[in-house]
Amino acid sequence: MRMETMETYPIQIGSVTRRVPLHEPFPGVRIPLVDFLGDVEFVRAVAQELLPKMPEDADLLVTCETSSIPLTHELASARELDYIVARKRRRPYMVDPIIQEVESLTLGAVEVLWLDRRYAEKILNKNVVLVMDVVASGGTMKALEKMVNRAGGRVIARLAGFHQGETDLEISTVAELPQL
Amino acid sequence: MKSYPIEIGGVKRELPVVQVGDGVSVALLNLLGDTELTEAVAAEMARRLPDEIEVLVTPEVKAVPLAHALSRISGLPYIVARKTAKPYMIDPVTREVLSITTGKPQLLVLDGADIVKIKGKKVAIVDDVVSTGSTLKGLRELIESVGGEVAAVLAVFTEGSPRDDVIALGHLPLFKPEEE
């Protein structure tokens, strides 16, 4: 077997190629590590592939912090729409926020999404597209959808740059990331 | 609710004035979700960006879309200093700062994989609002500790006391809650 100091996995999106590092979250399980922060060219290439999958009647995009923000910004800009970012911590200026727990199969710290009422009000009666950079089990995306429903919006599409593993959600993605 | 009017590159907004602590309210700028304002700010900042700058560094979270847009316009790479160390990071370097909005200690973390992009380079720090400057001070120390030179600080607004060490597009006053 050939040994390398740093193994990488090639990802090609349109004309953009990246060799991304492999991350080993558990012994024997390696996953390609896609980072949307700091890579404008890559984010724009992914956005170009996702735009045709975005319904024409979308009013608003919803995502959560942090790594999905550049992709959401690109998609929203291209369609001249606004977007809303659910936060992972309470901010001091939040008033009467919607608080949504993320259901997770793994034990550990429970993740909670926070949405200030000022932004929740913008979701009422809107056609919402959920956006994330990478979806694995889909727990975070399901929590976002519950949050949108609680704010009175309709989720009309779920977009993600990449999908990794098993999920029961119907998601439009650009590519599948393997477990190696 | 009281608001404070701003205009950047022809884009006008009414910032809500919200109480963030005992005896102090601030005009709340949120670039997250506002693509039109983010792009206008990035275009104005690009004009003020010194020619010598080689890389942009931004603290997570609210300035991330701005750094993304400024990177696209200027062609310079950008790096996000995260608030937590991630399991996939390689030899991360951290600094603790005291957050003015939460009053709690806050970490700033650079991934070792990003440090090579900062070392020996002229860096511009990009942020949304510089108030007490505690985040700025921590981020500057962090960048210098890994061998980068902070050659400029760019912010949308300074807040409270005006400062001459920041290239800002405007200034926000602080408000007393009873003025709301």
Portion in beta strands of chain B: 35-45%
The rounded Rg of chain A comes to 17 Å
Q: Distance between the terminal alpha carbons of chain A, to the nearest Å? A: 15 Å
Tell me roughly what share of residues is in helical segments of chain B.
10-25%
| SSE succession of chain A | EEEHEHEEEHEHEE
What's this model, at a glance?
The complex is a heterodimer of chains A (180) and B (180). With 180 residues, chain A is α/β, with parallel strands linked by helices. Chain A contains four helices and ten strands; from the N terminus they run βββαβαβββαβαββ.
Description:
The complex is a heterodimer of chains A (180) and B (180). With 180 residues, chain A is of the alpha/beta class. Helix content of chain A is 21%, strand content 37%. Chain A has four helices and ten strands. Chain A has helices spanning 40-50, 69-78, 117-120, 139-150; strands at 8-13, 16-26, 29-32, 60-64, 82-86, 98-102, 111-115, 127-135, 154-164, 172-177. A five-stranded parallel β-sheet of chain A has the order 5-4-8-9-10, with helices on both faces. A three-stranded antiparallel β-sheet of chain A has the order 1-2-3. Chain A has a two-stranded antiparallel sheet with strand order 6-7. In chain A, β4, α2 and β5 form a beta-alpha-beta unit. Chain B is α/β, with parallel strands linked by helices and 180 residues long. Chain B is built from four helices and ten strands; from the N terminus they run βββαβαβββαβαββ. Chain B has helices at 35-48, 64-74, 112-115, 134-145, and strands at residues 3-8, 11-21, 24-27, 55-59, 78-81, 93-98, 105-110, 122-130, 149-159, 167-172. In chain B, the strands form three sheets. Chain B has a five-stranded parallel β-sheet with strand order 5-4-8-9-10, sandwiched between helices. In chain B, strands 1-2-3 form a three-stranded antiparallel β-sheet. Chain B has a two-stranded antiparallel sheet with strand order 6-7. In chain B, a hairpin with a 6-residue loop joins β6 (93-98) and β7 (105-110). The longest helix of chain B is centred in the N-terminal third of the chain and has 14 residues, at 35-48. The radius of gyration of chain B is 16 Å and the shape is globular. The model of chain B has no long low-confidence stretch (mean pLDDT 93). Chain A binds chain B through residues 21, 23, 25, 33, 37-38, 40, 43-44, 65-66, 69-70, 73-74, 76-77, 80-85, 87, 91-93, 95, 118-119, and chain B through 16, 18-21, 26, 28, 32-36, 38-39, 60-61, 64-65, 68-69, 71-72, 77-80, 82, 87-88, 101-102, 113-114.
